[in-house]
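Hey forum,

I'm writing up a methods section and want to include a predicted complex as supplementary material. The small molecule is pyridoxal-5'-phosphate. I've pasted the protein sequence and the SMILES. Can someone with a working setup run it? I'll credit the forum in the acknowledgements.
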Amino acid sequence: MEIPKQNLQRYTNLTREFTKPGYINLNPIQRGGVLTEEARRAILEFGDGYSVCDWCPAKTPRLDMIERPPIKQFLEDMARFLGMDVVRIVTRCREAKFITFLMLARHRGVKDGYVVIDSLAHYSTYLAAELAGLRIKEVPNSGYPEYRVDLDVYAEKIEEVKRETGEYPVAVLLTHVDYQYGNLNDAKKVARIAHDYDVPFVLNAAYTAGLMPINGKELEVDVLVGSGHKSWAASAPTGILAMTEEMAKIILARSKIVGDWSGRSFPQKELALLGCTVMGAPIVSLMASFPHVVERVKRWSEEVEKARYLVEQMERIEGTRQLGVKPKEHTLIHIESEGFFKISQKHKRKGYFLYHELKKKKIVGIQPGMTKHFKLNTYGLSWDEVKYVANAFIEIAEKYGLQVS
Ligand SMILES: *Cc1c(COP(=O)(O)O)cnc(C)c1O
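Reply by user p_vandermeer:
Happy to help. C-alpha cells for the complex are below, copy them as they are.
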C-alpha cells in the first residue's frame, strides 16, 4: 500500500519544542532524564541497531558479558554504586518489577500469590503483579493533605495474606518516593518488617536511585529497581534491576529448555531477560552519563533546598499549598491551588490559562488544563531558574488579582 507523501514528510526533521534554548521544563518525569553531553555523543556513535554487539563474546554470548564497550565493568560499578551485588539493565523499571515478581512467584511455586505494596505505588507496579499472576494487598496512606504511607501496617498486611492464603506474600514492595506527592519513605523500616517474615523486600527506586545517594545494603534491600530514563540521565528504554547474590540465583535463573527434535539448549541465557535486553543506544547513554550521576547524587541536599524554596514562594500565593509531607525531602512537588482554580473558572481558556501564561514565560511541563492540582519537579534546575519559576507563578497570580503575602 502507498503511504501518503505528506505523512512521510512529517517523519523527517523531527523537532521537539520543549528542548528549545531558554525553555524550562518542569515535567516531573523528565527532569532526571535530561541527557549529559557525553550521552548525546554516545548515542550518535552507537545509534545503529544492535550496536553494542560488535564484540559479543562467543563463549558467553550475553549483553552483561560484553567488554567492548565496557558493559560488564559498568554493571559491576553500578552494583557497587547502589550497594547491591548484581545488576542487570532491562528496558524499564516496570519490567524489572515484573521480572522480579514473576521469578519469585515461580520459585515459590505459588499461583494467585500476593505482593504487599504501598497504596501510592505506580500503576505499573499493579500491572507487573497482575501480569505475573499475582494479587496485591495495599498498605493504606493517611490521605489529604499528607498522604503518608503507614509503614507499620506492612506487618498487618503480611499477616492478613498469611491468614487468607496460608502462605506469606511472594514479595513486599515499597515505593521509595512516590510519583504523586514525592514523599520519601523509610526503606529500612519496611525491609526489617519483610525480613521478620522471611519475605523478599523490593525497593522501587524509580524516583530516587540516580538522583540521591542510595546504599541497598545499608537499607537491607533484596531487590532494587530503577528507571534510567527517569533518573539516570539516560534515554528510554532503560531500567535497573539490582539484586543481592541470593536473589540473583532466583531472578536470573538460566534457561533449561531443550529442543525436542534438535536438542538445542541455551544454558548461558538468563531466562527472564529472554537472553539480552537493551542492545544499543539506550544502554550506552546510561553508561556515558554514569560518571555524572555518581557525582550529582552528592549534591542531593542542595536539590532538596531548591524544592523547599520554590514551595515557600508558591505558598505565598493565596489558596496555594504543597500537598504531601512537609518539609519536602524530594524535588517532586504536588501543588494544590484554590487560587489558580478560582481564576480558571472565569477565564475564557478555563484551566488552560495557567499553561498558556507559563508558556509565555518559557516555562513548560505543567499538565495543560490543570490548576487546582498540578505537579512539578525542580531537579537539576539552577538557583536562577528556580527563582525565575517562583517569580513567574507569583507574577501570574498578581496579574489575575490573587493576594501574594
Ligand atoms: C516513573 C515510575 C515508574 C515507571 O518507570 P519505567 O522505567 O518507565 O517503567 C515506576 N515506578 C515509579 C514509582 C515511577 O515513578
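Some notes you might quote in the supplement: Residues 5-34+300-399 form a domain with the Aspartate Aminotransferase, domain 1 fold (CATH 3.90.1150.10). The CA atoms of residues 240 and 300 lie 20 Å apart.
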